[in-house]
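Dear Dr. L.,

I hope this message finds you well. Following up on our conversation about the binding site, I have prepared a predicted three-dimensional model of the protein together with pyridoxal-5'-phosphate. For your records, I am including the exact sequence and ligand specification that went into the calculation, followed by the structure tokens. Please feel free to forward this to your student if that is useful.
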Amino acid sequence: MNSQNPTSATRARRIYSVKWLEYDADVIPAWVADTDLGIPPSVKVALDDVIAREEVGYPPYSLTLDYLAAFSEWQKSNHGVDMDPSLMMALSDVIQGFNLAISTLVAKDSGVVFFTPSYPPFFSAVEGNNRRLLTSDLVAGDNGYEIDFDDLEEKFVAAGPGGALLLCNPHNPTGRVFSHSELTAIAEVAIRNQIWVISDEIHADLCYSGFTHIPFVSLSDEIASRTVTLSSASKSFNLAGLHCAVLHAGDSRIRKALQAIPEGLLGHPSSLGLLGGAISFREGRQWLDSTLETLRSNREAVMNWVASTDGLVRAFSPEATYLAWLDFTESPRTPTAQRFVLDKAAVALNPGESFASWAGQFARLNFGTTPEVLEMILSRIDGALRS
Ligand SMILES: Cc1ncc(COP(=O)(O)O)c(C=O)c1O
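The resulting structure of the complex is given below.
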């Protein structure tokens, strides 16, 4: 491998990162969704101070309330939506949140629908809660992946009243930011079929210019009363290891229904997570803007490279997220796209088949890294494809 390996510094720094530890040292990781781009400086200062004081006992409830208030302020100022903290719960993880919503809201004999390709834990959440799993494929259009509304309605009918849509918006892995008209159309079909909407909006703050995130709950009061929203500071501010997330119930009836689970099974987010999240929401805007600038330029590098492969790899430019959904179907690889790239390019992508059973010739690239590491990732994949 290249002796000027620009990954060494990152690898040396990221000593507690599953992304960097999972594979052999000669492999550049571009898989699990966190970034190599640090955290907001004010969060670092606050967390350093907590450790310096050795203040890691049980946090006061006021810290939870402050975190929820900070999230509410952030949603208002960044996404124009009113989210009442009294309808929220602080959780450890977004994954925990959608599992909780499925197990408490979705009728036992009903189904849960989601778009494929899909963030893999959606599959295990539906199966693990013994609900019927129904998927609706996004369809590649001229400018990006599109919803097949006829198919969606069919799946809602099959799910039955009391079923749910597990929506991921912005969408992982395609990077779609669903438009107002798409979301309104989803809401109409959901209302018509008495379907809950569990809206995972964890990537909401990572939209690129020209694309606006619309919180699903903001569409109308009627849809709010069918909607659970999940979010976190963990993607926007790179705090996934602190394990802190938020669930917002669209009305008090939903909030009450969520209490069907014994509170003791839910656990609590950590003081570091609550504090890191609250400070990010209150003081992180500037850091996020500059990180988004790096990500925008990385996205351009990925898309320029895709264009230079003359169809060996295809992709739509992600409208949000630091993830690119790479399509190798024009020049299929053995045994799968991800395995080929791992074996021949020593780059670890996420396997397409974990996002949809038909997607073995797709792979997800995480470009949330430094431009130097990204350049090396792309040049390695390029070399392998052409050899
Ligand atoms: C759509 C989506 N939801 C949830 C998560 C994970 O969130 P958490 O770590 O809070 O469970 C991710 C992480 O990649 C994600 O992409």
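In brief: The two ends are 16 Å apart (CA to CA).

With kind regards,
A. P.
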